[in-house]
Amino acid sequence: MGTSHKPERGVRKLRYYLIRHGETTWNAREIFQGKQDAPLSEKGLMQAQLTSNIATKIGKATVWCSSLLRARQTAKPLAERGGYEILIDDGLMEIDHGEWECLHVEEVKRLYPELFDLWLRQPDKVLMPGGESLKDVQGRAVKVLDRIRQRGEVQAIIVTHDAVIKCLLCHWLELPLSGFWRFRLANCSVSIVEEEDGRATVPLLGDICHLESGWRWSKQRSL
Asked: A Pfam family for this UniProt protein (predicted)?
């Protein structure tokens, strides 16, 4: 659960804006992309532009971004709009799906039926063949939070991926990683987490009101 990296008491308030990258063509086709460098689709590029408008409400901040192209493409218009510095951090990369990457969901079901079923029921028990576990992802993502705190940030915008955000939310809310699927986060959704006096609170979760489509339930898996 990463409980050894909880916010320290006495540290001033720190607000995180967590943004999932925009839609990629692989998202739309339900292909596992993981650490593959899939670009944003036309819809994803539009989502990124719409998301950049939230810079007017955030104010001074630094953008921490996954090194994968889809995250960088999402962060760029936001950084330009807000005049933010972008810091690239590999600790924010999507979960490594290993042998599942580049495969359609139906192919994974056929080739790895038992493991795929376990992924949907008990994701914390799964080590992706040739890839990572959720514990691996959470461990490296929590270290990024440490690096943010060490810089004395007051506000940090984290542009990253579905699995990374869910693992961080489990960490902050002290939930076991078995609760991974309890969160559903659409592309370019915005969540806010605040740390103060050793506590983490979540005043906003999965907001997509800044997108023209408004609230729309998404059934997308963590791909």
From this structure: His_Phos_1
